[in-house]
From TrEMBL:
Family annotation (PROSITE patterns): ALDOSE_1_EPIMERASE
Name of the protein in question: Aldose 1-epimerase
Region (Disordered): 229-252
Family to which the UniProt record says this protein belongs: Belongs to the aldose epimerase family.
InterPro entries on file: Ald1_epimerase_CS, Aldose_1-epimerase, Aldose_1/G6P_1-epimerase, Gal_mutarotase_sf_dom, Galactose_mutarotase-like, GH-type_carb-bd
EC number(s) recorded for this UniProt protein: 5.1.3.3
GO cellular component: cytoplasm
Transmembrane segments: none
Length: 349
């Protein structure tokens, strides 16, 4: 097991560092203290060739200008809050509007746009980096001084664990996730349309035109949203289903997980042989197939394009603060918040 640290860039007078965790099998994950951002995950294909399986940039400038949240921790609230406001304990709070009239992924300067404190730890069978940040009362409109810790741990079972911990001195909202875009082909050799996704989910949330949930749970049975036995991403991208078309040709939908911590999310690429199993205690996962991805900047030498990556954002259900029938995001004063998601990398012959 090994940990390395090196300078990645400068943000004003502050240094942005990259931390790399590597296990005894050669699996390697690199993070920035800027946004707790995962920049690379290096895993082998079935031929033993080690390649990167996430989207990102070689230079800090890419992340400073990034509007796609590549690899970042997003919060205080992941996803959209309609109208960029909410009412809590009888008081209405106005949030930063950074997507039309809505609040998206924590606002203009959310968790993804700050430098976190970092502390490393090395053990015989695992290595970790713990990132810490205090979000002050009123930041982006949210109440309470919120202390957040995000710990990335890589072990010799080829598992990457993300543990989120938070506590606030006022009742507030909290719903965080990691926003990595995965592409198991390796080094972005092709898009993710032929990746196969399996989800233990019987229901998804219908979306409105603005991509906010309608509040209705929809059954996956008989639709392109039924991933229970596995299906290709292409089947949704090519679908004429109104919800697939609304999302821009693919998925940008929250799925309600029917099981937790039991291989409830599995992504496979038959060409490379790579498999990734995701286990979480979150109530849902937002599946986003980069339907809107575009731009002139290069992603590790590849031009951004639609369907280049897939996000599996384990979290609470979007816009829950406006839907009483969704599990709540409310974090009570002085009550600890914790959530864990684990990614296990392997090979399917």
């Amino acid at each position: 097991m090994n940990i390395t640290k090196e300078q990645f860039g400068k943000l004003g007078n502050n240094t942005v560092n990259a931390f790399s965790l590597e296990n005894d099998h050669g699996v390697k994950v690199t993070f920035l203290d800027y946004g707790c951002t995962i920049t690379k995950i290096i895993t082998p294909n079935r031929n033993g060739e080690f390649e990167n399986i996430v989207l990102g940039y070689d230079q800090l400038e890419g992340y400073l200008n990034n509007t796609a949240f590549f690899g970042s921790i997003v919060g205080r609230v992941a996803g959209r809050i309609g109208g960029a406001e909410f009412t809590l304990n009888g008081k209405t709070y106005s949030l930063a509007k950074n997507e039309n009239n809505n609040h998206l992924h924590g606002g203009i300067k959310g968790f993804d746009k700050v430098i976190w404190d970092a502390k490393t730890e090395e053990k015989s069978d695992e290595v970790s980096v713990k990132f810490s940040f205090i979000s002050p009362d009123g930041e982006e409109g949210y109440p309470g001084n919120l202390k957040m810790d995000v710990t990335y741990t890589l072990n010799n079972n080829n598992e990457l664990k993300i543990q989120y911990e938070g506590i606030s001195d006022e009742t507030t909202l909290l719903n965080v996730t990691n926003h990595s875009y995965f592409n198991l082909s390796g080094d972005l050799k092709c898009d993710i349309l032929d990746h196969e996704l399996t989800l233990k989910s019987d229901q998804y949330l219908e979306l409105q035109e603005n991509l906010l949930p309608t509040g209705e749970y929809a059954d996956v049975e008989g639709t392109p949203f039924d991933f229970r036995q596995g299906r290709s991403i292409r089947s949704g991208a090519d679908s004429e289903h109104p919800q697939n078309k609304l999302a821009g040709g693919g998925y940008d939908h929250p799925f309600v997980l029917s099981e937790n911590r039991n291989e409830e999310i599995v992504l496979r690429d038959s060409e490379s042989g790579r498999q990734m199993i995701v286990e979480t205690d979150a109530v849902g996962v937002v599946v986003y197939t980069s339907n809107q991805l575009a731009g002139d900047d290069e992603i590790y030498g590849v031009q951004p394009r639609k369907h280049l990556g897939i996000c599996l954002e384990t979290q609470g259900l979007p816009d829950a603060v406006h839907h009483e029938n969704f599990p709540s995001w409310v974090l009570e004063k002085d009550k600890p918040y914790t959530s864990v998601t684990t990614f296990k990398f392997g090979i399917v012959e």
